[in-house]
Design brief:
Blueprint: H1 2-17, E1 28-35, H2 38-51, E2 63-70, H3 75-86, E3 91-96, H4 105-115, E4 120-122, E5 139-141, H5 149-160, E6 164-170, H6 173-189, E7 198-205, H7 213-220, E8 226-230, H8 233-245, E9 254-257, H9 259-262, E10 272-276, H10 282-302, H11 322-332, E11 335-338, E12 341-345, E13 351-352, E14 356-362, E15 370-380, E16 385-390, E17 413-418, E18 426-429, E19 442-443, E20 446-447, E21 454-455, E22 457-460, H12 462-474, E23 477-482, E24 491-497, E25 502-508, H13 510-516, E26 522-528, H14 531-534, E27 538-539, E28 544-553, H15 570-593, H16 614-625, H17 638-668, H18 681-684, E29 692-693, H19 699-706, H20 711-718, H21 725-734, E30 739-743, H22 744-753, E31 757-773, H23 780-793, H24 795-805, H25 808-817, H26 824-898, H27 903-911, H28 929-939
Parallel strand pairs: 1-2, 1-3, 3-4, 4-5, 6-7, 6-8, 8-9, 17-23, 17-26, 29-30
Antiparallel strand pairs: 10-14, 11-12, 12-13, 14-15, 15-16, 18-22, 19-22, 20-21, 24-25, 26-31, 27-31, 28-30, 28-31
Helix pairs in contact: 2-10, 3-4, 5-6, 10-11, 15-16, 15-17, 22-25
Amino acid sequence: MDYKLVLLLSLLSLEVSSQKAGGDYPSFFNIGGVLSNNDSETHFSMVIAHLNFDQTFVPRGVTYYDKTIRIDKNPIKTALDVCKHLISRRVYAVVVSHEPTGDLSPAAVSYTNGFYQIPIIGISSRDAAFSDKNIHVSFLRTVPPFYHQADVWLEMLSHFGYTKVIVIHSSDTDGRAILGRFQTTSQTNYDDVDVRATVESIIEFEPKLETFTEHLFEMKTAQSRVYLLYANTEDSYVIFRDAAQSNMTETGHIWIVTEQALQANNTPIGVLGLKLNCSNNENEHIRDAIYVLASAIKEMIVHNETITEAPKDCDDTGAIWESGKKMFNYLKTRNINGATGQVAFDSNGDRIYAGYHVINVQLPPSSLKQNVKVGSFFYDEEKRRMKLKINDTVLIWPGNTEKKPEGIMIPTHLKVLTIEEKPFVYVRKLLDDEIDCEDEEIVCPHFNSTDGNEKDYCCKGYCIDLLKALAQRINFTFDLALSPDGQFGHYQLKNHTTGIGTSVKKEWNGLIGELVAERADLIVAPLTINPERAEFIEFSKPFKYQGITILEKKPSRSSTLVSFLQPFSNTLWILVMVSVHVVALVLYLLDRFSPFGRFKLTTNDGTEEDALNLSSAIWFAWGVLLNSGIGEGTPRSFSARVLGMVWAGFAMIIVASYTANLAAFLVLERPKTKLSGINDARLRNTMENLTCATVKGSAVDMYFRRQVELSNMYRTMEANNYDTAEQAIQDVKDGKLMAFIWDSSRLEYEAAKDCELVTAGELFGRSGYGIGLQKGSPWTDAVTLAILDFHESGFMELLDKEWIFHGNIQQCEQFEKTPNTLGLKNMAGVFILVGAGIVGGIGLIIIEVIYKKHQIKKQKKMEIARHAADKWRGTIEKRKTLRASLAMQRQYNVGLNSVSKSISQAVDKNRYPKLNPLSRAPERAWPGDHEIARNRRNNDNSYKPPPRYMPTYATDVSHLVV
């Protein structure tokens, strides 16, 4: 009776509305329905009848009418019925149901109406194919597609804290769609990489499979124990059956499945699944579909959109119905609160904001297995977004346990990669006759990715000891290998060939590339922590803090043959030389003309020294200056001695100043670094004679690329960059490279090992070395805690002392503080000066010997002449004396007779005759001595003249004595 009353009221309203004269939109709208049963058809008609009295959705003068048909299992017959019974009656939209036994039955309705752009609203079809607007151009649905369950999966993983999963899906459109939705939503909506779920492995299977055992073996080798399953009911049965036989549904495993898989009759205990709210209530979806359509039409009328009449004949190949395209766009913008919850659509026309129940398969005591609701995924009206709420206290996990599993299986045998970098890793090639490495070494093979060869090496060092300590502390075993390409890792462009063509893609190489590709578990090496790497891999807390510094060779002072003259300038040396001789001359003059000098004193003291002549004065001046003993020629006068004391003071100051400056120049002064640091103007504006470089693709290289203020410097040094640090350090030692920019730990080690190398300036770009791990690795926390414990216990300091410093740093510091040892190179000039003095002395003595021989020969000739003359003169004198004696005798004899005198007087007169000064007899018996005596009388004041009367030769007159 009620149904007939509603129809009568509808007819009355149609009669009233038919009186309306024309307009931009029709006065009545026929709404078609392709439904699955009589109840749905009856409910469809009643909803439209009630809609006509709802002024909220229906403007005045507008009436809606229903036109329904029954969906058929045969899609062709369904398409024909749509043309015959719906399109022929000018329907403006069609609501289509889902026939349970025909999965693609709504496709026929979508194709037929889509050709004319007539909007179709599905109320039960959830296949991913209907999201493709290239095929189903005007299909809209109030139920979400199956692959939208990936959004709930991500929320559940975030709630439980699982970050690594294995996705199992069928190789069909829906299976690939749910995988794509999961990965895209994870990257888009979860910015925090620490909580973002990543897919460790993807298992794709063909539908209607008979066994799943082969895929289970692959799943067992993975770390993750969280399985996301998308499969229909039949395939889920096979998967659960084989998984149970492999004990993969027991404790430690987590299964999160979709609605279809949850319907399998062998679903394991503890499985978590989803169930769409109102998924089986077709009547509520019919109501929401009709009200969404009415809301869109009203919105078009309010915006004065022109709505033309709908197509009426499938045989007419007329133009596309443009009003239908506009109506479909308005439908996609609807957002109403309907019977099934908040009804809204995305750009593909798929339902969003759909609510789900979180179902947990449980086995209560003394009861059958049942699905229990443990949470819900619902629309939060305050925050206007979907929200997940789960009651963890009632959850039952696989194995019928209440304890939440870890979600991963932590492997205890890890593959560890390292790289040669002294002193952190020393690499030695294993000799042919060696079977194993030494005790402190570990075998670390190198697999060459270029030629595919593998060589055995032995590794030791700072990082190797750290790896051993970590393995012992957190209990794991490992296989160690060297970096395949010998690099730490950086972004590089690689060509990828696809079916369309060749594309260029950036990929990591080196150690980072191996870790990103999950071919390694750990990187134990001096790996710098930086933002570029941290985006793709995990880092532990730094095991060593360091920065970037500059290594250069100490500038050496050039030692010449006259290095000992460097303390004084050339001008000062000339003045000292001139002063010596000027002072010597003044000393001579003062002592020569002073009344108290030796030249003016008269004394008979035979022990007095000789007078100060010019030669003695020069010797005295040099002796005082050089602090040597003065053997002769000291000044006697007071004025000269005052000048001598002043000269001695001058000499003391000069010698002391020379000694102090010599120590500064040759002993204490050490060459400083040529560069002041990274801000040195010579680095910022690199000159041709100053080359600097770093290692290609290293963290230092990335640092310079990031710093805008260092861009000019980086462009210059980029062409000089090396492949390895070993080559660069060797070139610094050889003088081919002026400055090598690298990690401070390595460069401090090199400076400690070779005191000729020095680090310049302060550290910049401070960072740290960390252990590299895969994203979401279960070992991250354990490694970090172990490293923190090593820092607290002092283990890291022991590694620093043992491997980095080696005690050499103390030796270099002592070398810097202690005086330098002078070598022959420094003092060669002094030895050459002494040698020149010796050669000069030998030359002079040869000249003196030759000159003396010449003088002796000349003197001998003179002596012979003098001796002959003296001999001749003596003979003459003797004869004269004899004649005089004879004359005296004759006079005596005569006088005796004539003069009365005493005999004694006559004798005395003849014995002591008066000497004539003009004719002297020889004074000495040695020939030539009379010249010496005469010179002595002339030059020596102390000379004593002989007696006035000298005995002479006389004849014997004894016979005259009476």
